[in-house]
Amino acid sequence: MSDPIIATTGLGHAYGSVVALHGVDLEVPAGRIGLVGANGAGKTTFIKILLGILDPTVGDASVFGDDVRTSAIGIRSRVGYMPEGSCLPLSQTAADFVVYAAELAGIPAKAARQRGSDVLTLVGLHEERFRYLGDFSTGMKQRAKLAQAIVHDPDLVFLDEPTAGLDPEGREEMLDLIARLGSFGINVLVSSHVLTDIERTCDWVVMLDGGKVLRNGPMTGLVETDTVQVDVIGDPDAIAADLSARGATVSVDGTTLLVQASDQDPFDLVMAALADTGAGMRSLGARSTSLEDLFLAGAEGGGE
């Protein structure tokens, strides 16, 4: 891993007797990061600590190598934040709001107006930029929140539940926007309890459950397995017995076999077993584990 953009050691935070984060040790690289967990898992608390809005109860955290306790202002100058809840000034137009956000980040007024126009175009609000935010639909408000988060061209943007309240079409459009941010050189941390959204947009994932880390790693390493799934035509038990005799680990579910082999190519073993038994197959391919599978397995097992 190159130098991490986010790092924590023994990070914890409590609201009185309620522990929101406990013993969080992380190193997260540049890219598009998914922060996943059920509601109440500690995701928003984690983001607010990284922004310097909350002080950790215990432990340490840094963003781009800067300590969140001592360098909060410097960190905020390099990041953007799209909060989950309602935060828009409903009596302002989208253009006025986004331009004001740019000026707050130190961009001169003339440049801020141009930047605001460009970013509103990017998020699909160019035609609506002079409408009042109070007249916006939920999807348009989410786009406006995204626009203010990236108008100052941050190095990292935190998106807290960016697809919340969106209809299917709006969700797809927001996910496409998130996926595009990386092409502009902006690192992204997406907080969501919708695991399929993270699979769509991110290349690294941090899983939280009950304030603890279940998983932290690249998406490819987490969701791919060495398991082959084959749907057979014939006696599945006979094929499973043949595969077992060849050293494979096999589970049978109806006509579907899941095959693993530690020191051999499971595809070769399946083809050999089919040839020996004279059976056919309807489908054959590598089986991928979803984030949901991993999350449920980690939660049941108490994490790594």
CATH architecture of the largest domain: 3-Layer(aba) Sandwich
Q: Helical residue percent?
A: 25-40%
Low-pLDDT residue spans:
none
The count of strands amounts to 14
Structural class determined from secondary elements: alpha/beta
Strand order of the largest sheet: 6-7-8-3-9-10
Which whole number gives the mean pLDDT? 91
Apparent shape: elongated
CATH secondary-structure class of the largest domain: Alpha Beta
Number of helices: 11
Describe the main β-sheet briefly: 6 strands, mixed
Beta fraction of the residues? 25-35%
How would you spell out the order of helices and strands?
EEEHEEHEHHHEHEHEEHEHEEHEH
CA-to-CA gap between the ends?
Answer: 20 Å
CATH superfamily of the largest domain: P-loop containing nucleotide triphosphate hydrolases
Tally of domains: 2
- The whole-angstrom Rg is 24 Å
CATH T-level topology of the largest domain: Rossmann fold
